[in-house]
UniProtKB/TrEMBL annotation:
The keyword Magnesium applies. The keyword Metal-binding applies. Mg(2+) binds at T60, D61, D62, D281, D283, T284. This is ADP-ribosylglycohydrolase.
Length: 342
């Protein structure tokens, strides 16, 4: 594949996912009919109407957790630093947090197995998109190759240990890396599927301490569902890159499929606007599609940048900060801190 020709690709991608998320904030949990009735057939600017009271231009928990993860990497403490940063974010009461994410981050402060324990408490049935929505941070922090796959699996499983969630994240970060290197969309998705299929995610989670003696039930459930989960990811990737959108629900594979369908289009608005107009979990689908668009080199329309904020205060971030002013430094520090652990 061609070498990277855009030295600003991390910032392009981070701004893209944040702006897309902020657009989707207004239509989250709404139906397409209600969205069209309220906003009309086009959606080309930030709008009021968020069910969580985000102001126009404010990005939601998706982007907030991406940035919190990057702030965690800045600490140079590996997974423990990332987990601590996510817990600090949660402790400040963000309004829009998935149930499994909240439970996993609330279980214990000194171990990495909160996600596994939360998954077991769900009967090993919960496979939401709370890991997928933030995993782009791993790629943005500078991980590559096998380290990117390992880190994506572990960081996802801090909250979402279902193998569908883990494999979806491994696929997504591999896709972003391939796209940033100039691969065509179908070629990049196929290369990412090969990485997902050949990577031993269960071993990575065991090595990191996400799975272990205290989480034997989760370990057994992961092993039993592993092959079927990989097949499910493969199927939804292939349908998504062909343009299918079954649903924009919070189920991880619905989100992945929809984001792939939207993210393949010709320009930034064509990638993001359909995700926003379809509603349901529109902020997350738009956020993931925004990461894909950014990795392809599609830049955020300039008119969206001045108002872009993250809609919450927590240690390391102020709600009033402009993303364009603060995110370059966040990225630089995260990549430096992550480099200490690679």
């Amino acid at each position: 594949m061609a070498s990277v020709t855009r030295p600003d690709w991390p910032l392009t991608t981070l701004l893209s996912l944040c702006a897309a998320d902020a657009l989707g904030a207004a239509t989250e949990f709404k139906t397409p009919a209600a969205i069209t009735a309220q906003y009309g057939p086009l959606f080309r600017s930030y709008q009021p109407g968020s069910v969580f009271a985000f102001a126009p231009g404010e990005a939601t928990d998706d982007s907030q957790m991406v940035v919190a993860t990057l702030l965690g990497y800045h600490r140079g403490q590996g997974h423990a630093g990332v987990l601590a940063a996510l817990r600090e974010w949660l402790s400040t009461g963000p309004p829009d947090v998935g149930g499994l994410t909240r439970q996993a981050l609330s279980l214990g402060a000194g171990t990495l197995d909160g996600g596994a324990r939360a998954w077991s408490s769900s009967g090993h049935a919960s496979a939401g998109n709370g890991g997928l929505m933030r995993v782009a941070a791993v790629w943005l922090a500078g991980f590559e190759g096998a380290a990117l796959a390992t880190e994506s699996a572990v960081v996802t499983a801090l909250t979402h240990t279902d193998p569908r969630c883990v494999h979806a994240s491994v696929f997504l970060t591999a896709l972003l890396a391939a796209l940033a290197q100039g691969a065509a969309y179908e070629d990049a998705s196929q290369a990412a599927l090969v990485i997902m299929d050949t990577f031993d995610a269960r071993a990575a989670l065991l090595d990191a301490g996400v799975l272990g003696l205290e989480t034997q039930a989760a370990h057994a459930a992961f092993r039993a569902a592993d092959r079927e989960a990989r097949a499910a990811v493969r199927a939804r990737v292939r349908s998504g890159r062909a343009g299918a959108v079954v649903s924009q629900s919070g189920y991880v594979l619905d989100t992945l499929e929809a984001a792939l369908a939207h993210g393949r289009r010709a320009d930034w608005w064509a990638c993001i606007e359909p995700a926003v107009l379809l509603g349901d979990d529109s902020d997350t689908v738009a956020c993931v599609a925004g990461a894909i668009a950014g990795a392809r080199g599609l830049e955020v329309p300039p008119a969206l940048l001045p108002a872009l904020r993250l809609g919450h205060d927590w240690p390391g971030w102020a709600r009033t900060w402009a993303c364009t002013a603060q995110l370059p430094g966040v990225l630089e520090q995260a990549r430096a801190g992550a480099g200490q652990t690679r």
